[in-house]
Amino acid sequence: MREPGRLCTDFTEFWRVFMSKVMPMKDAIKNNIKDGDFVYIGGYICRPPFSAVHEIIRQGIKDLTVTRSNAADDFDMLIGAGCVRRFVSTFLSLGLYGLGRCYRRSLEKGIPHKIEVEEYTNLSLPMMLLAGSMGMPFIPVKDMVGTDLLNVKSFMGDNKYKIIESPFDGRPTLLVPALNPDIGIIHVQQSDEEGNAQMWGIGGDCQYGANASKKVIVSCERIVSRDTIGMDPSRTIVPSFKVVAVVEEPFGSHPGYTPGFYDVDFAMGKFYQLASDTEDGFRDFLKEWVYDTADRADYIKHYIERFGYSQFKNLQADFSYSYPVSYEY
Amino acid sequence: MEGGSAMKNQTPDYIKPELMACCGAREIMDNNLVIVGTGFPAMAANIAKHSHAPGAMLMQESGVYDARPRRPALSVGDPCLNPGAAMIGGLIEIMGMFLQGGWINVGFLSGSQVDKFGNINTTAIGDYNSPKSRLPGSGGASPIGALAKKTIIVALHDTRRLTEKVDFITTPGYISGPGEREKWGLEPGSGPGVIITNKAVLRFDKETKEAYLASYHPGTTVEEVVALTPWKLKVAADVHETVPPTEEEIKAMRITDPFRMIKIYENRGYV
């Protein structure tokens, strides 16, 4: 990767060779996301980049267009905090704890403002990200036909979808546009300092969303060496060249989970639901868990103070290592 | 693991959500590929797998194939689905390669509003642009409704949840009637197979594609079910009482849900 002694021919090369991508979340967000950006946020209960979401709220970034399939409490929080203008969506709920409270307040009552929602499905949206990752302009999908999803169009207007006769067999074919977010944010188990990001467990649309994005922030449980990455390279889902920031953020997806590290925090999920039931409760929640905490380490410290170390310890995963693999020849 | 003295009773001990799960299980054939969610679907599929359909293979849209959870999963992204699964990918693998690829035999659906053609609304109650109640959205249900060969719909049986016509078709059933799915290019013969409610099992007429009463659960009557259905519900000539869970099915339930977590559905009105 690094080639000592090689001359730097331009700034990009200088940056690549000499500037580390490893930085605190605060800098990763400040340097790479601005008002109005289109942001892909990975996760599927599994590995939501929650500390990044908190940092976006903390920095007061506004007018974002956000996307991912099966959005959950992290998107609900961003909407409630007023960071979101547009949402390329499939679904948003608090899972076990029902409907997203802030999402509903936004769409039913315009609190804090009414977001614009462009609705797809858990097949079509991942396909749009896949198309984006491959540089294709659009992709055919076989769902959505016959539903009212075709009768509602928001900020994408007539470009939400097109129906054509297939040039091959003349059958009606639904096309949906590729998506290329300005930035993708994912949380993974491990990455090296260059951003070769390794993930295992439930994938959702993480790999496609990250690779569809023009650049990627990798949040990870641990930074490992390039040699460690090389011991099991099939687990890498995003290559270093796409990555602009690597943030070592233990417990970075809490109250979601990261396989092999910690469990879903159902108690915290319930806590958020109860808090977000009311506007005041949500405001207090943000103050306590986002604005009044400096960063993720501070958040964890507050969690332990608030709920006790044993509750925190109980979330930590057991170890059961998988069978080692060999790539030798 | 198996549940104690209740099993020795002559009358099998079961609650309504368990009966409904058994009705779902009976729709699954051996070696079927089944996309499941949590709760009823997972329970139903597991009963099938532990009784008449040991070769059925379950998968979750989030990316998991043939999971071996050590407790019932509470979501399709639940951590317990990871260790022991035969394959984990993501949405493109399950929803793209397997579902859109045409491999899935059975998919489970539920909804706040279900109509007589088996269309489901999970988007908004009332006007879309200024909804009375904004619901979660399509998620994986809509593609499952479009692309699984057969879908099983679970719903509460009252005149609010069941409706002549849904406010918004999020997930396609037979859309507006016979031939509609085919017109849109969906696979001929695919579509909703059954609506399982807390009162009855409804099936779909081959000609009209309208749901009719096939069987009513113990404790209710044809008249009650018809009264609770907001469209003019046709009744099968051979309408009968739903067969209660068999001993084999109860055994399978106690293995797959030893703590009877399915009881939470009683609080949601499934009684």
SSE map:
The complex is a heterodimer of chains A (329) and B (271).
Chain A: H1 11-18, H2 25-32, E1 38-41, H3 50-58, E2 64-67, H4 73-80, E3 84-89, H5 101-109, E4 116-119, H6 124-133, E5 138-141, E6 162-165, E7 172-177, E8 183-191, E9 197-198, H7 206-212, E10 216-223, H8 226-231, E11 236-238, E12 243-248, H9 266-276, H10 279-291, H11 296-307, H12 309-315
Chain B: H1 16-25, E1 33-35, H2 40-49, E2 57-60, E3 64-65, E4 87-88, H3 91-100, E5 106-110, E6 113-115, E7 120-121, E8 124-125, E9 133-134, H4 141-147, E10 150-155, E11 162-163, H5 180-183, E12 191-197, E13 200-204, E14 211-216, H6 222-227, E15 234-241, H7 247-256, H8 264-267
Parallel strand pairs in B: 1-2, 1-5, 5-10, 6-11, 10-12, 14-15
Antiparallel strand pairs in B: 2-3, 3-4, 6-7, 8-9, 12-13, 13-14
Précis, in short:
The complex is a heterodimer of chains A (329) and B (271). Chain A is α/β, with parallel strands linked by helices.
Low-confidence stretches of chain B: 1-10
Report the strand count of chain B: 15
Low-confidence stretches of chain A: none
Shape of chain A: globular
CATH topology of chain B: the name is Glutaconate Coenzyme A-transferase
Helix-and-strand structural type of chain A: alpha/beta
Q: Proportion of β residues of chain A?
A: 15-25%
Rg of chain A is 20 Å
Count of beta strands of chain A: 12
**How many structural units, i.e. domains of chain B?**
1
Amino- and carboxy-terminal Cα gap of chain A: 23 Å
Radius of gyration of chain B (Å)? 18 Å
> Element order, helices and strands of chain A?
HHEHEHEHEHEEEEEHEHEEHHHH
Largest interface: A-B, 55 and 51 residues
Quickly count the helices of chain B: 8
Could you characterize what this model shows?
The complex is a heterodimer of chains A (329) and B (271). Chain A has helices at residues 11-18, 25-32, 50-58, 73-80, 101-109, 124-133, 206-212, 226-231, 266-276, 279-291, 296-307, 309-315, and strands spanning 38-41, 64-67, 84-89, 116-119, 138-141, 162-165, 172-177, 183-191, 197-198, 216-223, 236-238, 243-248. Chain A is of the alpha/beta class. In chain A, the strands form two sheets. In chain A, strands 1, 2, 3, 4, 8, 9, 10, 11 and 12 form a nine-stranded mixed sheet that branches. A three-stranded antiparallel sheet of chain A has the order 5-7-6, covered by helices on one side. In chain A, β1, α3 and β2 (64-67) form a beta-alpha-beta unit. The mean pLDDT of chain A is 95. Chain B has eight helices and 15 strands. In chain B, α1 (16-25) packs across α2 and α2 packs across α7 (247-256). The radius of gyration of chain B is 18 Å and the shape is globular. At the A-B interface, α5, α6 and α7 of A face α3, β9 and α4 of B.
